[in-house]
Write a structure and sequence with these properties.
The protein is α+β, with helices and mostly antiparallel strands. It is about 80% helix and about 15% strand.
């Protein structure tokens, strides 16, 4: 009976030791998985930040370029309208206070 109790005691100690080792191994694996997950998350966060910065910069450049083209086309259209109106009117004289501005086909004449 004592022998059986001793054998049972040894079996329980052995089983307990295996459970402790198993738990330590599981904890170690969990820490490794968490480190991998954290590294992956930080990499994705960095990529998203870099990508957004790149896209915003490109969009800003495209928008400024489009605005410059629009402004230039507006200036050209306005000049064309002014020229067309002057051609329609012929010679024009404006009196602004003491100044007199004459617009003719030969050019602009401003007298003080």
């Amino acid at each position: 009976m004592v022998r059986m109790e001793t054998t049972l005691q040894m079996f329980m100690e052995s089983t307990n030791r295996r459970f402790v080792e198993q738990r330590e191994d599981i904890n170690q694996r969990f820490e490794q998985v968490m480190l991998i997950f954290t590294a992956f998350f930080l990499a994705m966060l960095g990529y998203a930040w870099w990508d957004r910065r790149t896209i915003v910069r490109k969009a800003k450049e495209d928008t400024l370029e489009a605005l410059a083209k629009t402004e230039e086309s507006r200036k050209n259209a306005l000049m064309e309208q002014v020229v067309a109106e002057l051609e329609r009117l012929g010679d024009v004289s404006l009196q602004l206070g003491e100044r007199r501005i004459s617009l003719t086909r030969g050019g602009v004449d401003i007298t003080p």
